[in-house]
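Worked example (supplementary).
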Amino acid sequence: MSVRIVIIGCGFGGLEAARALRGAEVQVTLVDRTNHHLFQPLLYQVATAGLSAPAIAAPVRHLFRKQENVTTLLGEVVAIDPAARLVRFADGGSVPYDHLIVAAGSTHSYFGHDEWAPHAPGLKTLADAFEIRRRVLLAFEQAEKESDPARHAAWLTFVVIGGGPTGVELAGTLAEIARHTLPGEFRHIDPAGAHILLLEGGARVLQAMPEKLSASAQRQLKKLGVQVRLGARVTAIDAEGLEVHAGDDTPPYRIASRCIVWAAGVAASPLGQQVAQATGATSDRAGRVVVEPDLSVPGHPTISVIGDLAAAKSWLAGHEPRPVPGVSPAAKQMGRVAAANILRRLRGEATQPFRYHDYGNLATIGRNSAVVDLWTPWRHVEFSGWPAWMFWLFAHIYFLIGFRNRLVVLIDWGSAYWSRERYARVVADIEPGARDA
Amino acid sequence: MSVRIVIIGCGFGGLEAARALRGAEVQVTLVDRTNHHLFQPLLYQVATAGLSAPAIAAPVRHLFRKQENVTTLLGEVVAIDPAARLVRFADGGSVPYDHLIVAAGSTHSYFGHDEWAPHAPGLKTLADAFEIRRRVLLAFEQAEKESDPARHAAWLTFVVIGGGPTGVELAGTLAEIARHTLPGEFRHIDPAGAHILLLEGGARVLQAMPEKLSASAQRQLKKLGVQVRLGARVTAIDAEGLEVHAGDDTPPYRIASRCIVWAAGVAASPLGQQVAQATGATSDRAGRVVVEPDLSVPGHPTISVIGDLAAAKSWLAGHEPRPVPGVSPAAKQMGRVAAANILRRLRGEATQPFRYHDYGNLATIGRNSAVVDLWTPWRHVEFSGWPAWMFWLFAHIYFLIGFRNRLVVLIDWGSAYWSRERYARVVADIEPGARDA
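After joint prediction of all chains, the assembly is encoded as:
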């Protein structure tokens, strides 16, 4: 009987780990609580009505139909049991493992203010994206019906909290929608008059980028019509707006807004806590599990943690180990290394430490607007504007899973580029909490 | 100040009425409770994961962006007030009218058994389609996990109730999914072994078609792997299955099924009842408002009712008036006539009676399978199989609103035709009642 490897989560890390086990004499069980792999870098396009959900989500089962050593299971993992070597599901079922890879990813964090969640949804899942799409589109509809000037202004004020890549993409695209997609379609309001605010607590947007590119991104945002407020800490959020603290010298002020999006904080999946408890591993402040150089959990060589759930370091002989950032290339690389290390163990070989290959960083802002920070083998390249946008576009389409998705995304973007229309402007149910498209 | 025309509902009837008023010196307000026009003939494709929602739903606001006399309003109409000439919304607002066209359409009817609704969803809205998609895809997932043979069989038994066009399309497509899309992707079950049942209370499927085509449709269904049961009346539905009465001579029997779809009954929107009460009009057994030959409500020349909400007759000099069927071409024709009659009234001319031009009937069953019953000016044509399917395909793509949708639908179908894959196999939230894609 062959060795049973269970992988929890089919994001970039889990998917890559399962792929790396192709052809190996092992039985892989890939468990996820959804039925699809989500191409998260384009999720903001679903939230802003530029793409439909199926364009960026592929059924996991379909992706592995030809890799016969992979079994796909739909289920929500609530616990792991290292003594019994079992993964336990919410519905009471369980699945045994010889080796386990935990790749459950991250969720958004409100820094202890979970009461903000209903007023400022984050963007991690398709359901999140539909909720944001619903709120954005309905805010313009409500504004069209509203005659009271103050309430009218609140409906047309959109606030994105957090100046990382997701916040920048969302704010830039909201500005595009307001300035270019919707004008001409309303009779009582001018959508181009909408206020798009991007609030960042730190001193610049895109802090993972070089300062020059942060400044460029900020200029490009301004050009698209986004008001960027730096050093702006959010101290309260409710259904009518939010309160912002701009520094110790100034009193907090209020922004009336009916559409607030949270792109500020990320925390590890709650499963990280569970893994740490079950194995005695430590977890860091963000809830990530601290792992060995080979990505296994200390004292549990049969359990590896990868991706956003791992507090991992990059090891290179002669250098200080460096923390690995929570980005998708790192998750994919960890997936490959964790899988390879399991195969090494099965062959009786020594495992190898994880080394993160950083190829750089890129972020888009809007039509023709992006910043790219590339580490090529030859030199370090920074560029922005239209060339960066083209680079971003083709990089993302290249990495999209499945040929059909690539083609449809290209068509959608091609037509959106020329017409500035966003075709996925569909809200299935108007009531909050109902189902959307 | 120009004349105010309010249109309730932006299905085929309302949309066509608004379009027919292009260029007229009137102010049109188009009210709907969703933000999109839905191409309902392809809704079953969304329910069966062949198309994404945005491919068949276009934002109403966008469709009328260039028709400047149209204002689009999102709102749920709860009442009309003929004395005050007001349409009242659920949120307390109202909008005044000089002429009113009510085109609120139909909903599914459980023939007095509303308790069946949670166990057998119908297919009218995008939200319905997502719910059916969720149930179909998750039934296969549950079967893959289930070891108990009886429960396993119940997960793999799909029952469609009602042998009209929607029921036939759904059953045929479910058979396609089970036989051709999913095989090879599961490790524990054989999806091709799923049972697809189509229950029809009457003596044949597609009763609006000639008998020869009904028989052909039934043969094509059988070939696709659908079990058709005629004369089968459903007497109970619960979470575990349903009870069927096959005639007075046989006792009722049970079918264990975890995925039941309701395609049997249609009733007028509840707004029909409201209009009848407010105007003193009569409504028929299905809740439709009985209208004058010119589609206005008796005694209320400023109010017209069209589409599925109207119990209308087709008038042709020298012939008995004939009831108009609840199909989209009839709704579109009524929309045009109602709009033209309002303009005639405004010019002081006599209104004209509605005459329904019946061009025939078509229904698809699955890949390469359809039936077509055409009334051309020259002769009556019936055909089925592959030519009928091609005809159905191009007719539907031709009538799809918006060029982009047509292109994407063509691509989706082209790729689905060759690969037999269905790309929209995405369930956003696994929990029932949650949001889907």
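Two points are worth noting when inspecting this output. The CA atoms of residues 41 and 396 of chain B lie 8 Å apart. The mean pLDDT of chain B is 91.
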